[in-house]
Amino acid sequence: MSLSPYNVPARTIMTPGPVEVDPRVLRAMSSSILGQFDPSFTSLMNDTMDLLREVLQTKNHWAYPIDGTSRAGIEAVLCSVIEEGDRVLIPSFGRFGYLLMEICERCGADVHFLSCEWGEVFDPEEIIKEMKRVRPKIVAMVHGDTSTGRMQPLKDVGYACRENDCLLIVDAVATVAGTEVKTDEWNIDGLITGTQKCLSVPSGMAPITYNERIEEIILERKAVERGIATEEQLLSRNVDRRIRSNYFDLSQLQDYWSPARLNHHTEATSMLYGLYEGLRLIIEEGLEERYKRHRLHERALISGIHAMGLSLFGNSSVKMPMVTCVSIPEGIDGDSVRGMLLQEFGIEIASSFGPLQGKIWRIGTMGYSCQKRNVLLTLASLEAVLLRHGVKLKTGDGVQAAMDTYQSVEQR
Amino acid sequence: MSLSPYNVPARTIMTPGPVEVDPRVLRAMSSSILGQFDPSFTSLMNDTMDLLREVLQTKNHWAYPIDGTSRAGIEAVLCSVIEEGDRVLIPSFGRFGYLLMEICERCGADVHFLSCEWGEVFDPEEIIKEMKRVRPKIVAMVHGDTSTGRMQPLKDVGYACRENDCLLIVDAVATVAGTEVKTDEWNIDGLITGTQKCLSVPSGMAPITYNERIEEIILERKAVERGIATEEQLLSRNVDRRIRSNYFDLSQLQDYWSPARLNHHTEATSMLYGLYEGLRLIIEEGLEERYKRHRLHERALISGIHAMGLSLFGNSSVKMPMVTCVSIPEGIDGDSVRGMLLQEFGIEIASSFGPLQGKIWRIGTMGYSCQKRNVLLTLASLEAVLLRHGVKLKTGDGVQAAMDTYQSVEQR
């Protein structure tokens, strides 16, 4: 059994998450512990809610993290809203649409699944037509699906959902803080994100936000837990409609995040330090500036990939700016390339899932990982590794093209 | 909106969690990020499993953390095992017995609840008799309930459960690494602990372990998730018996923690760094040494409390060594005392729940918080604050008695 302290090897992380974290966030996470009801800690909770509202572009009162990884946030929102037999429409354009289906089914929903070819997204009208036909209580969908690198326009869908009295719940795990996500303006009722992507905080928390339409359902299903409930609260509990999970029960969680501070779990202290600092750095950078940065490094990366003679996967008009899917050249073992990149150059890029496994590499440019140095090192190393794998390339051109892109912007 | 970096105020934390964390653990948590499938990270996952088996005193193959706070671990084990209508017997001696009831009910269990007076625990024979009468599939109970500071002897219960083909699932959140918890020897089938108590790691993970008896049930209910399942796996899924939660589905989680590394969530990188280092420090100290340390500081604290003229709550023969419940003197506002302790001395102690609210203070001596300095500072400060609240005390005697206890051990 190993008893040595663990030493993290040096890495440049260019996957769609988890991504590199600003040293200021890591330092914040090494601060000493506070009690969960310490006034200084509850202030930090409130300040984190403020920052989250700003980053999620919402006036919703409820905006707080679930203590778990991204899918914990997705399950918390869905299982708090969905009751046995509720109809849910899931338009899916990649793996994470299946995850929504999986979670909704387990919540007892009557799932209507609409899929499109991987690499494409939906014409909003197609979703709206299906919504009008199925008349679901909820439309649940992914904003940016990292498995294919595509991003679904949501504005028209959101407008139609509101018009038709249908809830729109969006998994924006991969897009928040990397590109425009307008919770309120797009009429999104419930939205989930994750810490380990463009927020650039370690994995382990899932910030969510939801509006009064969702809160209303949650409050109808509220059942304060035994052990802290008053006699009166116990008697008035609507046990039949009670949310099936205790950990993910948003009616209890919002009490914990309210001035009542009704005891639920013990908030993850160090993760909250990290989340606060990560959000603070986002607001300090400015949302617009941050989106612009993600687009710039995407452009440099793409120009390099093209100049090397490689091609991209998927419909470029709906590409996520923070994920670039590169087609693996015919006859090349994609995992062997990734392995050599990691082992010899300490650079990590990702493969994909299902039908795309072995077909594409996915290069992430998210949060703190989204910087010039990382893009240039990745292009240079990828060229070297592909040459070693016998791929015919325009040597030297990839990095030069990216440098040209940067220079053209800097000279402006 | 606050945009300043957050600064943690200086605190001495003497609650039953979250508790102080060794600076070595905090430093480990500030290490840079690794991808979840990086070979160095998957090695760390395996090493953490090794250390967990050692600390949980088990030969079980499965021993890994759930990414969530303690109750996430409890819910994960219970919801993976319990199916609609399963009979569960819950002998409860405090608030956290109610939590088990709450979670089991939400899982659809037919709950049989057995309670005893707060401050006492059960005669094991009483539990065994009830188990034989009710014939449950599962006995679920708490080992040490911090709400009352009592600890239930489990050996006889475990033996009887195994004899009667009943599963024993134990919430040992507050006791592991602070006192003897013998998973295998006591015939515990599933056990959950938390990071923020005697493991002395920040809140946010819940290590669990379970044996083949539980694994068998989980595998029967296994349903690989859409999006990563093969056609064949999809066709063979037992959808009716499928575990209701995706996030807490142990059949998927154990695939993720196996060499297959089947993608589920994105493991909480920094928390795992912290958990590994925390477990490593426990093994370095030695389990026996660590239990002895917890008993020593408990003894010093108790001698100080008694010498001050205060009295303890509950049956002392079944007291948890890491939680000391002090009766609040007649006519004194317990929260006012706690507030002054925090505000003037930067020391945090806890109140309690339900029938004990306003009746007792709970002083924790857990993990890194369990040290001489903390005990002496707490006694000195408590005396000062009580004097300010008009309590008649034997001034000076509390700290002197604790110092005597330490000296008598050091001179041996």
TrEMBL record, chains A, B:
<protein>
    <submittedName>
        <fullName>Alanine--glyoxylate aminotransferase family protein</fullName>
    </submittedName>
</protein>
<dbReference type="Pfam" id="PF00266">
    <property type="entry name" value="Aminotran_5"/>
</dbReference>
<keyword id="KW-0808">Transferase</keyword>
<dbReference type="InterPro" id="IPR000192">
    <property type="entry name" value="Aminotrans_V_dom"/>
</dbReference>
<dbReference type="InterPro" id="IPR024169">
    <property type="entry name" value="SP_NH2Trfase/AEP_transaminase"/>
</dbReference>
<keyword id="KW-0663">Pyridoxal phosphate</keyword>
<feature type="domain" description="Aminotransferase class V">
    <location>
        <begin position="36"/>
        <end position="351"/>
    </location>
</feature>
<comment type="similarity">
    <text>Belongs to the class-V pyridoxal-phosphate-dependent aminotransferase family.</text>
</comment>
<keyword id="KW-0032">Aminotransferase</keyword>
<dbReference type="GO" id="GO:0008483">
    <property type="term" value="F:transaminase activity"/>
</dbReference>
